[in-house]
Structures are given as C-alpha cells and as structure tokens.
Amino acid sequence: MSILNLFKIAIKALSNNKFRTFLSMLGIIIGVAAVIVMMAIGQGSKESVRKDISKMGTNLLSVRPGAEKMGGVRLDPSEMQTLKIADYEAILNNKKYITYVSPEVTSSGQVIYGAKNTSTTIYGESPEYLDIKKWEIASGSCFTDEDVRKGAKVCVVGKTIVDELFEEDTDPIDKVIRFKSIPFRIVGVLEEKGYNNWGMDQDNVIITPYTTVMKRLLAQTFFQGINASAISEELSDKAIEELTEILRESHSLKDSDEDDFTIRSQQEMMETMSSTMDTITIILVVAAGFSLLVAGIGIMNIMLVSVTERTREIGLRMSVGARGFDISNQFLIESVIISLSGGLIGILTGWLGTLLCNHLGFPASIPMWSIVVSFVVCTVIGVGFGYFPARKAANLDPIEAIRYE
Amino acid sequence: MVNKDKVIIELRDVKRKFIVGDEKVYALRGVSFKIYEGEFVTIMGTSGSGKSTLLNQLGCLDTPSSGEYILDGMSVRKMSKNQRARLRNRKIGFVFQNYNLLPKTTSVENVELPLMYNKEYSAKQRKEAAIKVLKEVGLGHRLDHKPNQMSGGQMQRVAIARALVNNPAVILADEATGNLDTRTSFEMLVLFQKLYSEGHTIIFVTHNPELAKYSSRNILLRDGRIVDDTINTNILSAKETLDNLPVEETVDDLITESESRDD
Ligand SMILES: Nc1ncnc2c1ncn2[C@@H]1O[C@H](COP(=O)(O)OP(=O)(O)O)[C@@H](O)[C@H]1O
Ligand SMILES: [Mg+2]
What we know:
Chain B: It holds the Pfam family ABC_tran. The complex is a heterodimer. By secondary structure, chain A is of the alpha+beta class. Chain A has helices at about 5-15, 20-55, 85-95, 130, 145-150, 160-165, 210-220, 235-250, 265-310, 310-320, 325-360, 370-395, 400-405; strands at about 60-65, 100-115, 115-125, 135-140, 155, 175-180, 180-190, 205-210, 225-230, 260-265. Chain A has two domains: about 5-50 and about 270-405, no CATH class; about 85-260, no CATH class. Chain A has 13 helices and ten strands. Chain A is elongated. The mean pLDDT of chain A is about 90. Chain B has a single domain, classed as Rossmann fold. By secondary structure, chain B is of the alpha/beta class. At the A-B interface, α10, α11 and α13 of A face α2 and α3 of B. Adenosine-5'-diphosphate (ADP) binds near residues 25, 47 and 50 of chain B.
C-alpha cells in the first residue's frame, strides 16, 4: 500500500479516537516542551554569563595562593598564605605585559551608619583595582596611592551601600561609616553594576586600601589574591607566563618545585563557567528526557490496545491481500504521527515556555539544533515504541484474527 | 456455462490437522477434487465437519499439513506468506458470515479495500471499479453509506461487491447467508445466481441443505472427508422461490424496495 494511503488510514484511525490520541500525545508534548525549555534556559544563561564576563574585561588575570589541585580542593591552610607584599612589589618592578596590579584582601561583616546597618563585604585593593575591573566612579574620587601607603581609613562604596545606609538625597561623600567598629570616610561612590549571573549584588561592596584591611581590620600579612590585567586579551598568555616567572622567583622555587599559586585568566574562567553550565544543562535535559521515555511507553501501550481492538480489521485486511509489511507499516505510521505531531506541539509549547521564561527574567534562548534533535528523537520514539505493537499486528494469524470477538 | 477445459481449483489428498495441547484434531482427512471455471459449488456438512477449514485452504489463508493445492495453475503449498497474500489479493474474493466491513467507512471505501493493496490501480481507477461493482450488486444508491446506516442484506451486498472488485478467479463464501433472514438469504442467492450466470466461479459453504438446490454442484463433507459430490442438473431459480415466499415485508425491505425502484 502506498505511503499516502497509509497516512490517510492512520489519520482516520486516530481521529476516530480523538481524545485517546490527544492523551497519548500529551506525554510527548510535555516531554518535548520540557526538554526545549531546559535547553533554552541552559543556552540563555550561558550566553548571558559570557556577555557579563566579557563586559568585565577579557584581559583580567587573577592569582590565588595554593597549587591547582584536581577538583579544586585546597586543604593546607599554610599554603594559603603564600602571597605577600614582596610578591606584589616584584610584580610592580618587573611587569612588561601587565598594565595594572592590585592585591586583594577581603572581609565580610556589618557596616553601620547612624541607626542603619547592612551586611556587606569590604575589599582591600589598590586604586588600580577600578582600572582592572573597568569600574567608573559616579561621584567623588578613588582613594590614592598615598592613602594606601598610610593605611588611611577611607573608602569608595557601591550603590547598594548608599541606598541601604543613607536617606534619599543625602550626599554620602565625606560621611563616616563603621565596619567592625573601624570608621571609614567615604571618598567616592561607584557606578551601578547590578546583579551578576550568580545572583550576587555587585554593588554591595566597600573598597578601601588593602593596607588598611590588612593592618587595621585583619592584622594579617598575606593577600587572598592578586588581580591584574594584561595589556590586551591576545597578550594574556604572555602575561601569565611573566607572572608565573616573577612569582616563582620571588618564592625561590626550584625548577623541580610545582607552582604554589594558581593563575587564571578571564578567558579560562569563561570556559570553566561554560562547561559547568553545560553540565547543569545536560542534567536538566536528561531529567526532562526521561519524561519522553515514559511518553514513549504510553504510546506503546495505546498502540497495543489499538492492535487488540482492531484485530478483526487486521484479519480482514490480510484476507484481502495485505502483507505483514503493510499491516506493520500502518501501525508504525500511526505511532509516528502521534509522536511527531506531539513533538511539534511540544516544540511550540516549549517556545511559549521560553517566552514566558524571558518575561519572568530568566535568560532563555532556544538553540536551533534542539528543535532538530526533538524531531529526530520523536521519530525514534514513534518508530521504536511503535515497532513492537506493529510486529504484533503483522504476526497475527489471519484466520484467528478475522474470527476474533 | 461450466468450462470443463479450465480447472480453477485442484485439491490432491489435502489433509489438515491441528494440534491442541497433546491432542491432534484432524479437520481434513484427505480431500481431493477439481473445480472448473464457471461452476457454482455448494459445500455442505454439519457443524464441525471441516467446511471452514477447507475454505481457508482454498482461500490461501491456511496451508495444508499435507497434499497439493493448485489454484489457477499455481501450486500454493510451498508459497511464502507474502506470495499467498498476493494470491488472495489477485485471485480470491472472500465473503464472510458477519460481513466484516470496516466501521465508519463508506461502501465505496470498503469495496476499494482489496485494490488498496494492488499498486496497479490508481485512486481514480479504484473508485471507478468500486462504484461499478456496487451497482452490479444493486447498491448504486448506497455508495456513501456507512455500515451502521445499512441493513444486514445491504452490508452483505457490500461485502460481495468487495469480493468481486478485484475480478477474482473464484469467490469463496463461508455461511454468507448465516446471519440473514430467509427472505434476505434468497435475495443473496439471486445475486449469486446472477454472478454464476455471468461466468463467475463460486464456492458457497452452508450447513443448510435447502440452499444446495440452487447451485450447479454439491459437495457434502463429513468428518473431514468428502462423502458426496454430485452435479445438480435441476438448478432451481432463487428468483422464483423469492417471489413465492409468503409476503411478510419488514420495514427494512420496504425501504430497500422503494429506493431501488427510484433508481
Ligand atoms: N484453529 C483450530 N485449532 C484447533 N482445532 C480447530 C481449529 N480450527 C478448526 N478446528 C477443528 O477442526 C474441525 C473443523 O472445524 P471447521 O472447519 O470450523 O468446521 P465447520 O466450519 O464445518 O463447522 C472442528 O472439529 C474444529 O474444532
Ligand atoms: Mg464454519
């Protein structure tokens, strides 16, 4: 029998049982829509993370203490204290491919102004930090190298701090806030940055000279890290080499010793981030994919019922000359129609779901290939789960089938 | 009308046994006969005598346990499943006791069914052929009716049209009047006699000995064996019998008749 006629028969059989057809399609619709939305969210958040990171500057380098370990676990706390003033000075004196450098020490706690307080993180940095991060000052100015030398109790604050601590229309410049009972005079307010993709409020910061944090706040002599920027993105690799050399020398490491620090470029972080996002996406998609498996079993079930119900019809078709092949094709096409049209509706539903996600503020964008994959998967489900019922129909004995009550 | 030069069906010592659990059931215990082109054969016998089993062999739905079956010059026994399906499609027309029409499907579509499995027919040719045979069986006014909109007699006419549409070598009818009242049964016989007069070869299975008088040859089965095989020289006219039946018209018949008069 021709494919066209098989299609006509299948459509007729399916429309004779509209509600049942719809129910068995529903599984596929939900499954495909879920897969599409998951992929779209995965893709969308990856794109927006990339955008965020490249906004921060792709020539960013960050040095952390401790050797890079498999799985990123660092156990020995003494290893964490290897970055010191001497290293910073060595970098300043020897840098060729590096433009800006800023040591970093941080501390979290409550900041108080008058009766108001909020919890925040204080970053001890050099003034170059703002150049590395491409961060502008909205009002006032940054603290100076002189402030760093003296360990001055001055700071620049993010927009959130201003909003939390001060009444509207109050000029925060020259106001004195307290962090861990140490007074800091505000000299500048940072431009607003908003939330990053990890949901962190980037404006909830206080930036102050690193010397101030080390001496007055933490009483420690080591840094938590050093931030730097390469001359350009292309020269990032050179800059990393240079940094490695300087630090190895200043740490007096022998050729056989491993690095006792780790340098990451923004480029690398972007890649790590992407691959983490990919993993999360895969997990989500696999979970959604299981619902497709269940939907496939549902189709198989309904096709088996359909074969049993139509045993007489199958017997009749055989007695007028249908071959097993014709019969199995008839049922295969039916299950493929269920799964493919379910898939189509599922894709549309997924697309609507993606629009809704965007509307609600989750970045989501459907990768083209996920639509292709959905079609392929639906065909495979239709054929795969339709095969067994179709074989069963084709293998019926015509005499018994036609007598079936 | 019978063409003694052309053998349509030849059986040579055909046996068919079924194995049910540990028991063997011998449905056919060695059946041999020849059927010539243009014969109207009635196969009779009590229930369980092997009539249906025999007809299934003739219709290539089943294969003999032993013996030879030659249909229109071809040996069926060694054929594959697909070859037998093709043979059913081209050479056989089946009529069943319970009509076996596809539900929710019009007469024309039901009759087209065998041609759907024959690539030589286009959609247009299928439809034309179906309409032609439906007119032949007197259903020119029921082309687009569905089975649930028709009487038993009309449904059986559709089934007969379906058996005729592929222009088969032989028409096989298993208890084709079994579900019909006397009057409608004779109407079917009138139709079969008409087909016989047009040269069709017909094998008609029934357990009702009365009906044997209207065919050209009678074969009697008992216990899987042929016990009698006679040529009927005095064929009664089903039309006359029908006309002489006591008039006891059903509403159904009234509708049929008034509508056929309209044509
Ligand atoms: N598929 C089968 N399996 C087992 N026994 C069968 C089968 N078909 C028919 N028979 C047996 O074969 C014999 C002949 O049956 P059948 O040809 O249907 O008789 P009839 O049509 O004359 O009433 C019966 O005894 C019946 O029980
Ligand atoms: Mg029978």
